[in-house]
């Protein structure tokens, strides 16, 4: 193994560390899939916290400023990111993809910096930290003592990382390392813990986690059981489409599973009451206006889409507001054997944490899944709208069988939430995947027709 540089978190080093890392991180961060500011330069970069986890591995929280763009209330815009950086004299060729660069100045001058999550040694030592509760500077490592985690599980970094990074240990556990950090308890820890308390087995319960107390309290990562033989709903739906198979039985069972999760969420977080449909409609209209400003293709449909939100203000209030998933789609559900499981309760990472934790109509989750069936159907040529319609019907039927109310009978609510989701999709695809823009635009054309 290449020689590891031992770096100690001395005060002087913490003060001068960005002299070594600043320019390297400015170049590296925008290239990462989990970095939210890809379309804007990193104009400011500051060190919020630094802890030596073990020799040769630094845990950093850094603040990024984005080109002078104002944030809420005129405050400087920016984000906090969690980094685990390896420091060595020379980097092994097998870690080439992890390379960030060689520091030219400051306390790390002459040393090679890399993303330590790619390093099996660092990943194993991180698991050891999680296996034993304790502290490291402002970091706190906590466990569920009822679930033992074996030592020596071989790690592998999943390549399909999106807004976070995930390590699988021995096909037994998966560690989600949050990259974009916001103060507070992350819903992906809070919600599964609460659902476990309700006896809900549809969501893998956390067995260990770590957090920071500085500069503010925040969740940094969660270790959960790994469903080794599971397939995600998106892959299963595409397989069904490719083979010409029907997916309605699976969609019906998924609807029942989601109703079970919603019932458990309502019990775990009681007392939410009903949504104010007027305020919800106003917020949806505001998001539509902002999206139309950014995406010209959306503008001709604005009047029809506004009608969906206007109808929301006067329609049946629907089921009580409660804690929801917040970003439900086929990629957020897993099927293992004959059972469906729901994962990733973090919600939309681009939204403030407080907003993601508020009570909302469960129709929002249902609309997200219905849009996901449409996305799947659009992956095949020719497009098979009847496949999506059958899946939508089956999902809603399965949901109604357990929830006690039928989403299909809440037409005004469902149309408004599905419209809001499609507007979000248009903005996302225009920014990140322009080739996919026709998929949500087809839904926009349908939903813009009054009364659809």
Strand count, sense and barrel status of the largest sheet are: 7 strands, antiparallel
Trace the largest sheet across and list its strands. 6-7-12-13-10-9-8
**Counted beta strands:** 16
* Class inferred from helices and paired strands: alpha+beta
Radius of gyration: 23 Å
Notable characteristics:
452 residues, alpha+beta, Aminoglycoside 3'-phosphotransferase, Chain: A, domain 2, 3 domains, seven-stranded antiparallel β-sheet, 21% strand
Q: Could you characterize the architecture of this molecule?
A:
About 40% of the residues lie in helices and about 20% in strands. It has a 7-stranded antiparallel β-sheet, covered by helices on one side. The chain has 12 helices and 16 strands. The longest helix is centred in the C-terminal third of the chain and has 22 residues. The chain is α+β, with helices and mostly antiparallel strands and about 450 residues long. The N terminus is likely disordered. The protein folds into 3 domains: about 110 residues, no CATH class; about 100 residues, no CATH class; about 220 residues, Aminoglycoside 3'-phosphotransferase, Chain: A, domain 2 (Alpha-Beta Complex), CATH 3.90.1200. The chain starts with 10 loop residues before the first helix and ends in a 5-residue tail after the last helix.
